[in-house]
Amino acid sequence: MGRPRLTKGLPPFVTEFHDRHGKLRWRFRRAGFPSAYISASPGTDEFIKQYNALKSGDRPSAGGDKMIPGTFHDLIARYYRSTAWTNIPKDSTRKVYRGVYERFREKYGDRKVATMTAWNISRLMETMSDTPGAAAILLKRLRQLFDYAILMGIRTDNPAKPVKPPKSKRGGFHTWDEAEIAAFEARHAIGTRARLALALLLYTAQRRSDVHIMGRQQVKDGRITVRQLKTDKLLRIPIHPELQKAIDACPSGHLAYIVSNRGAPYTAESFSNWFRRRAREAGLTDCPAHGLRKASARRMAEMGLSNQLIKSITGHTMDSRFQGTPKTLNKS
Q: What φ, ψ does residue 106 adopt, rounded to 5°?
């Protein structure tokens, strides 16, 4: 059991502790949001003011956590209140971006924005060479942030633009080959949730973020309608006979085809983790769910389908995402 709270009625994401002087303090901690101390006592108007500011992505404007103008703490907080931020169309996208900015702010929040150079950012990319994907994402967000700094008159240039991210050593997600698909099917028979999940991923060529919520309500006239979460693109994908067989053999009794043991749909992340465990049961240690999207595109290319037809199913806009050998599929 955890320690009982000394203060009753604390709002979500607020924890309490005694500092080294024995003083009771309160801290706001929430994934993807700035973490900071709340200087006011619970139940006061100032506490509520600071708490609401933190929930909106700002740092408290009172006590010892004041932001210094011109720092990254200040710039990022202002960016969260800007039209550039609110114009990002999806809450899910803003949540991902916020996570990137907050991790950067934890390290560099006190630094003056004007002092950051292209050389500094290049060195930062070098320190992230073991995680090139995360480095590339951070670099994109920094370019966006420095563009906003130019609008605010804090800078006259964007030091992130000339910097290149480290090259990926692995080349992206592994594309499943036919032997790996066969091994999974041999381990997970028709009628199991794992086999249905494989069929949904392989025969719709969609991302995990779309597959985990697929259900019968999306099916009409032999096609499944998908509004892609990442791109907002609307697709109507013919249901492959093998997919139909897997659906018929594993009814969930829910709107979603795939549900957990509790009878509720998975989140995208939990679906991915669950599917990875099913792959490991088949002896497949490097076969993520996304690799089946790439395998589907590979199959269609090997069948001789036109680029336009493949794109109408995968939702891609560029031929280079899937044309030719599996190597060219690595960024799909």
A: -60, -35
DSSP letter, residue 98 = H
For position 300, what pLDDT does the model report? 92
**H, E, C per residue of 132-189:** HHHHHHHHHHHHHHHHHHHHCCCCCCCCCCCCCCCCCCCCCCCCCCHHHHHHHHHHCC
What is the C-alpha separation between 134 and 187, in angstroms, rounded?
34
**Does this model's pTM top 0.70?**
no
The list of the chain residues with pLDDT below 70 reads 1-8, 31-34, 57-67, 169-171, 318-332
**Predicted local distance difference test score (pLDDT) of residue 319:** 62
Q: Measured between alpha carbons, how far is 209 from 311 in angstroms, rounded to an integer?
A: 18
Are 160 and 143 spatial neighbours (Cβ–Cβ below 8 Å)? yes
Q: CA of 138: how far to CAs of 108, 169, 266, in Å?
A: 13, 18, 28
